[in-house]
Amino acid sequence: MRSIGVAAWAFCLAMPGLAAGLPEDAALDRSADIKTLVPRVVVNSGRLEWEPHKRDLSAWPTLSHLDRRATIRPQQAAYSAPLNGDAARGRAIAMDPARGNCIACHTLPGEDWPGSVGHLLLGYKRQGHADAYVYQQIYDRRVLNPNTVMPPFGAFGVLSDQDIRDLVAYVQSLD
Amino acid sequence: MKIRIILLFTLCAGLACAQENAVYRDMDLPVEQYEPHVRGDMTLSKTYPYWKDRNKLDWRLAGNPEENWKLNWKFMDPPFNNTVHGGHFALDRGESLYKSLNRDGRFAACLGATSGRLKGLRTRYPMYRKDLRRVAGLEAVIEHCASAQGEVLQHGSYDNSAVSLYLASLSQGMPMRIDVSKGPMREAFERGRQLFHTKAGRLNFACSSCHTRNVGQLVRGSHITTPYGDVAHYPVYRTQYRLQSLHLRMMECNLDAGVQPLMPGSQSYTDLEVFLSALSNGYTVSVPAERN
Known about the structure:
- The complex is a heterodimer.
- Chain A is mostly helical.
- Helices cover about 25% and strands about 5% of the residues of chain A.
- Chain A is built from four helices and two strands.
- Chain A has helices at about 1-15, 85-95, 130-140, 160-170; strands spanning about 35-40, 50.
- In chain A, a hairpin with a 6-residue loop joins strand 1 and strand 2 (about 50).
- In chain A, helix 2 packs across helix 4 (about 160-170) and helix 3 (about 130-140) packs across helix 4 (about 160-170).
- The longest helix of chain A is centred in the N-terminal third of the chain and has 13 residues, at about 1-15.
- Mean pLDDT of chain A is about 85; it is low at about 1-20.
- By secondary structure, chain B is mainly α.
- Chain B has a three-stranded mixed sheet with strand order 6-5-7.
- At the A-B interface, helix 1 and strand 1 of A face helix 1, helix 7, strand 3, strand 6 and helix 10 of B.
């Protein structure tokens, strides 16, 4: 019985495409640099056309039942002082929809269309948090709140270590 | 004996694969219950009374850009929306495609028409199709039945959606009524409910992160609305997507939220379609509709 189980497991691994984990039913061009495809509807045609998306999304888990790549579990950041962050660069990342996009959820100074989902970060400096604590919030807030809606920017590789240091410097500068 | 061993093996293989598939995901908790009827919105966004009856929408609310999302965009469905838009041309196209496909009546029979009548067909999809041995939505069945006659009508293509739109127009004013109380449809609904709360992608968002927890909030300039009552106006006319089937709408939401999209007709989208269609049970079909 046990050997059958092992054989069955090996059989699953051997299934083409599944071994790599990229699900068969994802809208992908596997040979392209940007694999993620966007459908284009062509009037009076029975076929869809496809264009590359503006960024590749294939590296992160999908909703496919065939997707066997596990989500990265909540992760403790390996932060080391000194901070070496640049608040001006941090601000730019926070406002950039393609990078941090913190402004989508947080109210930040100097923006007239603030988000309302996240906490107020105005006056954050006055809360007197340690840099390591703030770094962890941005790196992976799930460690502190497993059900958070804030993306785990560091653990998921969305932002680099330096990006996060810049953001820490920025939010720690907000009066 | 030999057959038994093979059976045992495939059974074990199936189980092992199922286990392998149970990979770690973050869930948006709690996974809400959701009533398989449109009135379930009364325990979610509570906007239902505003859009319950499309013939009695409050035109003052519709004219207020801050508040009109409370109408769940139903002011863009007929009869409130009586402008001529691309959906009307698509409907004409769908009718002529249907007629040429159904010259000998085979197409209608394949779609599941009862003695040639298509009235009400839309309201019963998605359904379990014994012949296909799976749950399928209307667009998937259109693709299947066209290909049985050698025609290509890809799920999500303009022509597929046009035929779907024409079929929906034959159920105009009839309430959606899919049965998710038992069997494969119940299982699909349950998978869809779980998927709706499963976080995925670059930002670890679930559908419910927006459509359940943040109804009324602005995302990319539009207010998020309830998942109840969303299906009865599909396929829908969109400026950018032209004619958009429900699976293409899910692809769009996936892309917007940083999630790698799946192919139209994939099992996950079909499960979500069953889930969302059940949340439209009791709501009347109204096409051709537009969305921004």
